Structure formats: structure tokens, C-alpha cells
Amino acid sequence: MTESTVTSAPSTAAPNHGLDNWRELAISQQPSWQDAAVHRSSLQELSTLPPLVFAGEVDVLRERLASAAQGKAFLLQGGDCAETFDGATADKISARVKTILQMAVVLTYGASLPVIKMGRMAGQFAKPRSSNDETREGVTLPAYRGDMVNGYEFTPESRGHDASRMVWAYHTSASTLNLIRAFTQGGFADLRLVHHWNKGFTANPAHSRYESLAREIDRAVRFMEACGADFDALTRVEFFASHEALLLEYERALTRTDSRTGLPYDTSAHFLWIGERTRDIDGAHIDFLSRVRNPIGVKLGPGTSPDDALALIDKLDPNREPGRLTFITRMGAKNIREKLPNLVSRVTDSGAQVLWVTDPMHGNTVTSPNGYKTRNFDDVMDEVRGFFEVHNELGTFPGGLHVEMTGDDVAECLGGADPIDQEAFLDRYESVCDPRLNHMQSLEMAFLVAGALSR
Ligand code: PEP
Ligand code: MN
């Protein structure tokens, strides 16, 4: 991560910058904490803990996203649907960071543009759910809402909403971020090393069709080496953290006043997004995030009208500041070519310069015949292609990719060149929420997107 600035002590003063207005507004998807005293003390503790990210880093990210909004960089955002406390191990974190770095090298080559690397990591612990309950074999319990709220284990104790989990989420985010910072600053991100890992991918016969692109990248790396490129400088990369800002109490407790500017920053992550289920224009989530300086994303599903998008811009980006607002479309492969053009045209006509990113996962979720929540690799890729087609047709910039992925060899999404079938789910389905691309599927997507970008 980049140079940081000092952020002042937590502001516990009376409401400032309207940071508490959301408390008066309609709010959905919040927990019902079981113990009021634990709730109070947890929030008190969070409000005194140090910030997880620094305002200066957040400003750097806003500049990077502004250049992506202008067509001069590409965003790669990836990670678990729901991180878990148990999953915050060195092996899993390093595998995920490694996979994102590997994807980024391929995309950088394909796009001939800088790739902004961002994890759905170090804070992605709260989930919106379509139902409040879950029933298994006649027993009904509260639905799992992410490790920040309750446990995945299907028992009444585990499924109760425990506010002390917010503090646990903070500490797990801190240790995850610490390791990410070490990896991305300490030599692990060396371009030559990352490229070497990618050679392992194309050595698999199932991926032979990507060999020519890998060879081109190899030549480019050797060319840089021959020219005397400063590879030491290339051992460090910027890596940003993001999550869905769902639990507003947690986000509010980590929002601090930047001593340089006097403005509020949500220091729980560099980038926060608002989900499809909580983007009500008059609701609490939009109000709260409109008041912090972080770059903000909003997920847009197939039901989004151009007027909805314009209203979101007015609220979240009234000054039309490039880098401030990212629209993450998740239309579904079947809808994207029909729904996206009008949305993009109307936003472009309004003069706003938002960053358009595709989330090809959430509009393509299906249930496998043997009962698992899954996605077909081909549908995911079809949505990505549709996204590029629409933007190419309109002359706008397809600025990024938002994916649920892991660095591990799981079996959760169907297909890919080294195909996963539903039988593999029985042994290797690990996600506690939505299905993720595994390591190989993630790299394959990067090669396919790089091919599309370089055309
Ligand atoms: C998610 O990103 O995991 C998610 C719930 O997405 P959406 O808000 O797009 O449904
Ligand atoms: Mn998800």
C-alpha cells in the first residue's frame, strides 16, 4: 500500500457532517443483537481502536479510480463472497493475493494499462440475505449473516446475533491487512515471480490455448529485463481493501475525521460498496456513504432504471468527481446486452464520469441438480463478453472486473477448461455463501479477458 498520512483520534463528538442522519432513515438487512450491553461495549471499543486504513491511501485509490473512469486504468476486484474468521490463515490469504496478482499481470498485458488491484478482503464479513431464516430437516434458525453477525454452524447458539463479533471482525481484518501489506511490499509481488507462477498454469494441457499469450508476456518480461528495467521497483504493488458496507454501526464506529482536511473517512476499508438489496435511494446506506470521502461502489441489478442510476449519482457524487463513484453491474448473462446500453447512455449523457465495472457472478447464480448454489463458467464469461460488447458499441470504457474467487482448489462453480462437475462439489465445496471461481478458473478468466482487451 502507499504512503500514509496521520488520521486524528476517533471523533466521538456530537454528530458531524451528518454522519448519524442514517439512524433516522429506513434501513434493511441489519442484525437483531441479542445482548444490549455487549452491543454497547462493542461499539464503544470499535470507536476507540486505530483506523485500519489511512486517509492518504484512500485518496490515492480515488485518484487511481479516476484514471480508470477516464479509460486509463482497469480495476480488478476479487475475493470471497463471505470471508470467515477461520479462513483468515496465512495459506488462504497468500493464495488469494497470489491469484489476484497473477490475474493482474495477465490483464495488465492484455489491456496495456495499469491494473488497480483490490481485494474483497480484510472486512467482507457481513452478508445481506434474501430470507431471515433457514430451515434444515424441519428445524428453523436465523439465517447466517456473515461471521461479523453470527456463526455458520447450524445451532441456536451459533446463529444468535452476537455484537462482540464486530470487534472480532475488526481484529481479523487487521491481521489480514497486515499480511497483505507484508506480501505486497516485501518481495512476494515481484513481477518475475508472478509471471513464473503463471507459467505453471499454462503448463497444464487443458490450458494450452493460452500458451501463445503466456509466451508473449514472457517475451515482454525478458525484453524489460534486457532493457535494464528496475525490477526492484516492481517488487512492490499497491493493493487496496474493500467490502460491502452493510452493518452501518460498524462502519460508523470506524469513521474518523482526517486531520489534514477535517473530512470524514470510513477507515474500515479503502473502498466500500452498497449492495443491490440496500441501495434504496432514500435509505440509510446511501445516506451514510454519501457523507464519507472514500470511493464508493453501488451494485446495479437488472431492475435498475436509468433514473435510478441518475438519482444515485446525484446523491453519491453531486460534484461529479471522477473516481468517487463506481457502478458495478450484475445483470446476468441473459440481460446484460439488453439492459446495460440504455443505462450507460443515459449516465454518459448526464455528464457524469462514473467507473463501470462488471460483476459477472451475482446475476448468474443457479442451483445444481444435486442441490448446490453454483454458477456456470460459460455464463460468467458470457456476461463479461456482453459487458465489453456494450461498452465497445457505445464508445464508453469497460473499466473493471469484480469477481468472487479464491486461490484454493475448490469446486463451487461449474465448467472451465479443466472442468469442474457437480460431483466435485461433494468434496470441495467450501464457501459459506456464494460459489467462487477457484484458482484455475480465475486465471482462465484473466486470460480470456486479456484476449478480449488486446483485440
Ligand atoms: C455480493 O457481492 O456478495 C452480493 C451480495 O452482491 P449483490 O449486492 O450484487 O447481490
Ligand atoms: Mn456474493
Automatic annotation (TrEMBL):
GO molecular function, one term: 3-deoxy-7-phosphoheptulonate synthase activity
Gene Ontology terms describing biological process: amino acid biosynthetic process; aromatic amino acid family biosynthetic process; chorismate biosynthetic process
InterPro entries given in the database record: Aldolase_TIM, DAHP_synth_2
Pathway given in the UniProt record: Metabolic intermediate biosynthesis; chorismate biosynthesis; chorismate from D-erythrose 4-phosphate and phosphoenolpyruvate: step 1/7
UniProt: Mn(2+) binding residues: C81, H362, E404, D434
Record field: catalytic activity: D-erythrose 4-phosphate + phosphoenolpyruvate + H2O = 7-phospho-2-dehydro-3-deoxy-D-arabino-heptonate + phosphate
Keyword Cytoplasm recorded: no
Keywords carried by this UniProt record: Amino-acid biosynthesis, Aromatic amino acid biosynthesis, Cadmium, Cobalt, Manganese, Transferase
Cofactor or coenzyme needed: Mn(2+); Co(2+); Cd(2+)
Cofactor: record remark: Binds 1 divalent cation per subunit. The enzyme is active with manganese, cobalt or cadmium ions.
Family (UniProt): Belongs to the class-II DAHP synthase family.
NCBIfam families, sorted: DAHP_synth_II
Name this polypeptide is given: Phospho-2-dehydro-3-deoxyheptonate aldolase
